[in-house]
Design a protein that fits this description.
Helix content is 39%, strand content 17%. The protein is of the alpha/beta class.
Length: 224
Protein backbone atom coordinates (compact mmCIF):
# COMPACT_ATOMS: atom_id res chain seq x y z
CA UNK A 1 0.00 0.00 0.00
CA UNK A 2 1.10 3.57 -0.59
CA UNK A 3 2.46 5.62 2.29
CA UNK A 4 3.42 9.32 2.44
CA UNK A 5 6.45 10.48 0.47
CA UNK A 6 7.11 13.19 3.03
CA UNK A 7 4.08 14.77 4.66
CA UNK A 8 2.67 12.18 7.08
CA UNK A 9 -0.77 13.76 6.83
CA UNK A 10 -1.01 12.29 3.32
CA UNK A 11 -1.71 8.78 4.66
CA UNK A 12 -5.24 7.91 3.59
CA UNK A 13 -7.84 6.76 6.10
CA UNK A 14 -8.14 3.51 4.15
CA UNK A 15 -4.39 2.89 4.37
CA UNK A 16 -4.39 3.66 8.08
CA UNK A 17 -7.22 1.18 8.63
CA UNK A 18 -5.47 -1.48 6.54
CA UNK A 19 -2.25 -1.08 8.50
CA UNK A 20 -4.13 -1.36 11.80
CA UNK A 21 -6.03 -4.49 10.75
CA UNK A 22 -3.14 -6.38 9.11
CA UNK A 23 -1.64 -9.36 10.89
CA UNK A 24 1.84 -8.11 10.02
CA UNK A 25 3.36 -5.33 7.93
CA UNK A 26 6.28 -6.09 5.62
CA UNK A 27 8.46 -2.95 5.53
CA UNK A 28 11.40 -1.84 3.45
CA UNK A 29 12.85 -0.45 6.69
CA UNK A 30 11.02 -1.10 9.96
CA UNK A 31 12.68 1.94 11.55
CA UNK A 32 11.38 4.29 8.86
CA UNK A 33 7.91 2.81 9.12
CA UNK A 34 8.01 3.29 12.89
CA UNK A 35 7.84 7.07 12.38
CA UNK A 36 4.56 6.61 10.53
CA UNK A 37 3.27 4.17 13.15
CA UNK A 38 4.11 6.59 15.95
CA UNK A 39 2.27 9.41 14.19
CA UNK A 40 -0.93 7.34 13.97
CA UNK A 41 -0.63 5.21 17.10
CA UNK A 42 -0.26 1.94 15.18
CA UNK A 43 1.13 -1.18 16.85
CA UNK A 44 0.88 -3.88 14.15
CA UNK A 45 3.94 -6.20 14.12
CA UNK A 46 6.50 -5.27 11.48
CA UNK A 47 9.12 -7.34 9.66
CA UNK A 48 11.74 -6.17 7.19
CA UNK A 49 11.34 -6.83 3.48
CA UNK A 50 14.01 -5.04 1.46
CA UNK A 51 15.99 -5.65 -1.70
CA UNK A 52 18.46 -7.95 0.05
CA UNK A 53 15.99 -10.27 1.79
CA UNK A 54 12.73 -10.02 -0.17
CA UNK A 55 13.11 -13.38 -1.93
CA UNK A 56 13.88 -15.07 1.39
CA UNK A 57 10.68 -13.64 2.86
CA UNK A 58 8.43 -15.21 0.24
CA UNK A 59 8.07 -18.69 1.77
CA UNK A 60 7.28 -17.22 5.18
CA UNK A 61 4.75 -14.80 3.69
CA UNK A 62 3.01 -17.55 1.74
CA UNK A 63 2.75 -19.63 4.90
CA UNK A 64 1.14 -16.73 6.70
CA UNK A 65 -1.34 -16.21 3.88
CA UNK A 66 -2.16 -19.91 3.84
CA UNK A 67 -3.03 -19.63 7.54
CA UNK A 68 -5.49 -16.88 6.71
CA UNK A 69 -3.40 -13.94 7.85
CA UNK A 70 -3.67 -10.55 6.16
CA UNK A 71 -0.35 -9.03 5.16
CA UNK A 72 0.41 -5.41 4.37
CA UNK A 73 3.39 -4.31 2.28
CA UNK A 74 4.94 -0.84 2.45
CA UNK A 75 8.13 0.78 1.24
CA UNK A 76 9.92 3.63 2.97
CA UNK A 77 7.79 6.15 1.09
CA UNK A 78 5.33 6.15 -1.78
CA UNK A 79 4.08 3.10 -3.61
CA UNK A 80 5.82 -0.29 -3.18
CA UNK A 81 7.45 -1.96 -6.19
CA UNK A 82 7.94 1.39 -7.97
CA UNK A 83 11.75 1.53 -7.77
CA UNK A 84 11.27 -0.04 -4.35
CA UNK A 85 11.12 -3.65 -3.10
CA UNK A 86 7.91 -5.66 -3.26
CA UNK A 87 7.33 -6.98 -6.74
CA UNK A 88 8.70 -10.47 -6.05
CA UNK A 89 6.50 -10.87 -2.99
CA UNK A 90 3.46 -9.56 -4.84
CA UNK A 91 4.08 -11.87 -7.80
CA UNK A 92 4.51 -14.91 -5.55
CA UNK A 93 1.33 -14.18 -3.60
CA UNK A 94 -0.68 -13.71 -6.79
CA UNK A 95 0.76 -16.87 -8.37
CA UNK A 96 -0.23 -18.83 -5.26
CA UNK A 97 -3.82 -17.72 -5.75
CA UNK A 98 -4.05 -15.17 -2.95
CA UNK A 99 -5.86 -11.89 -3.42
CA UNK A 100 -3.48 -8.96 -3.81
CA UNK A 101 -5.28 -5.69 -3.24
CA UNK A 102 -3.84 -2.24 -4.03
CA UNK A 103 -4.30 0.54 -1.51
CA UNK A 104 -3.34 3.54 -3.65
CA UNK A 105 -1.99 6.85 -2.49
CA UNK A 106 1.14 9.01 -2.69
CA UNK A 107 3.66 8.55 -5.49
CA UNK A 108 6.57 10.84 -6.25
CA UNK A 109 6.15 10.00 -9.95
CA UNK A 110 2.59 11.28 -10.33
CA UNK A 111 3.14 14.08 -7.80
CA UNK A 112 5.82 15.64 -9.99
CA UNK A 113 3.97 14.94 -13.24
CA UNK A 114 0.97 16.85 -11.91
CA UNK A 115 3.00 20.06 -11.48
CA UNK A 116 5.52 19.68 -14.31
CA UNK A 117 3.37 21.25 -17.00
CA UNK A 118 4.48 18.53 -19.41
CA UNK A 119 2.05 16.12 -21.10
CA UNK A 120 1.51 13.00 -19.03
CA UNK A 121 0.24 10.90 -21.92
CA UNK A 122 2.42 9.17 -22.78
CA UNK A 123 5.11 9.19 -20.13
CA UNK A 124 7.85 6.72 -19.27
CA UNK A 125 9.19 6.09 -15.79
CA UNK A 126 12.88 5.16 -15.93
CA UNK A 127 13.63 4.77 -12.22
CA UNK A 128 17.22 5.48 -11.20
CA UNK A 129 19.93 5.90 -13.85
CA UNK A 130 23.10 3.84 -13.25
CA UNK A 131 25.25 5.36 -10.49
CA UNK A 132 28.60 5.13 -12.28
CA UNK A 133 29.49 7.88 -14.73
CA UNK A 134 30.39 5.77 -17.77
CA UNK A 135 27.38 3.49 -17.39
CA UNK A 136 25.14 6.49 -16.79
CA UNK A 137 26.36 8.27 -19.92
CA UNK A 138 25.76 5.16 -22.01
CA UNK A 139 22.34 4.69 -20.40
CA UNK A 140 21.23 8.21 -21.32
CA UNK A 141 22.57 7.75 -24.84
CA UNK A 142 20.62 4.49 -25.22
CA UNK A 143 17.39 6.31 -24.37
CA UNK A 144 17.99 9.34 -26.58
CA UNK A 145 15.15 8.26 -28.86
CA UNK A 146 12.61 8.31 -26.00
CA UNK A 147 9.02 9.26 -26.73
CA UNK A 148 6.84 11.40 -24.48
CA UNK A 149 7.63 12.80 -21.06
CA UNK A 150 10.25 11.01 -18.98
CA UNK A 151 10.34 10.71 -15.19
CA UNK A 152 13.44 9.64 -13.25
CA UNK A 153 14.66 9.38 -9.68
CA UNK A 154 18.10 10.59 -8.69
CA UNK A 155 20.32 10.80 -5.64
CA UNK A 156 21.38 14.22 -4.28
CA UNK A 157 24.98 13.02 -4.65
CA UNK A 158 24.57 12.43 -8.40
CA UNK A 159 21.81 14.77 -9.52
CA UNK A 160 24.13 17.43 -10.98
CA UNK A 161 26.19 14.97 -13.03
CA UNK A 162 23.02 13.17 -14.06
CA UNK A 163 21.43 16.39 -15.33
CA UNK A 164 24.60 17.20 -17.26
CA UNK A 165 24.60 13.75 -18.86
CA UNK A 166 20.92 14.11 -19.65
CA UNK A 167 21.53 17.50 -21.25
CA UNK A 168 24.35 16.14 -23.42
CA UNK A 169 22.52 13.01 -24.58
CA UNK A 170 18.98 14.34 -24.89
CA UNK A 171 19.58 17.78 -26.42
CA UNK A 172 19.32 19.84 -23.22
CA UNK A 173 15.53 19.55 -22.82
CA UNK A 174 13.27 21.46 -20.45
CA UNK A 175 12.98 19.78 -17.07
CA UNK A 176 11.00 20.14 -13.88
CA UNK A 177 13.03 18.86 -10.95
CA UNK A 178 11.26 18.13 -7.67
CA UNK A 179 13.27 18.19 -4.45
CA UNK A 180 11.80 17.02 -1.13
CA UNK A 181 8.26 16.75 -2.52
CA UNK A 182 5.52 17.31 0.11
CA UNK A 183 8.15 18.08 2.76
CA UNK A 184 8.89 21.36 4.54
CA UNK A 185 11.63 22.33 2.08
CA UNK A 186 9.79 21.25 -1.09
CA UNK A 187 11.17 22.88 -4.22
CA UNK A 188 10.41 22.67 -7.94
CA UNK A 189 13.23 23.81 -10.24
CA UNK A 190 12.42 24.53 -13.88
CA UNK A 191 14.47 25.25 -16.98
CA UNK A 192 16.86 23.56 -19.37
CA UNK A 193 18.62 20.56 -17.86
CA UNK A 194 22.02 22.31 -18.10
CA UNK A 195 20.68 25.41 -16.36
CA UNK A 196 19.16 23.44 -13.48
CA UNK A 197 22.41 21.48 -13.15
CA UNK A 198 24.36 24.75 -12.91
CA UNK A 199 21.95 26.13 -10.32
CA UNK A 200 22.33 23.06 -8.12
CA UNK A 201 26.10 22.90 -8.63
CA UNK A 202 26.40 26.45 -7.28
CA UNK A 203 24.91 25.45 -3.94
CA UNK A 204 27.15 24.74 -0.97
CA UNK A 205 25.51 21.38 -0.46
CA UNK A 206 22.71 19.41 -2.06
CA UNK A 207 20.30 17.53 0.13
CA UNK A 208 16.98 15.80 -0.31
CA UNK A 209 15.32 13.31 -2.60
CA UNK A 210 15.02 14.24 -6.28
CA UNK A 211 12.49 13.41 -8.99
CA UNK A 212 13.15 14.61 -12.54
CA UNK A 213 10.48 15.20 -15.16
CA UNK A 214 11.79 15.73 -18.68
CA UNK A 215 9.76 17.36 -21.45
CA UNK A 216 9.10 15.43 -24.67
CA UNK A 217 11.49 15.97 -27.53
CA UNK A 218 11.02 19.28 -29.34
CA UNK A 219 9.65 17.60 -32.47
CA UNK A 220 6.94 15.91 -30.41
CA UNK A 221 5.96 19.11 -28.60
CA UNK A 222 5.69 21.12 -31.83
CA UNK A 223 3.38 18.53 -33.37
CA UNK A 224 0.88 18.50 -30.49
Amino acid sequence: MATPIGNLDDLSSRAREALAEASVVYCEDTRRTQHLFARYGLATPRVSCHEHNERRRIAEALERLARGETLALVSDAGTPAVSDPGRHLVAAAAAAGHRVEPVPGPSAVTALLSVSGFPAVPFTFFGFPPPRRGERDRWYASHAGRAGTAVLFESPFRVVESLRALAAAWGDPEVAVGRELTKVHEEILRGRASAVAALLAARAGIKGEFVLSVAPQEAERSST
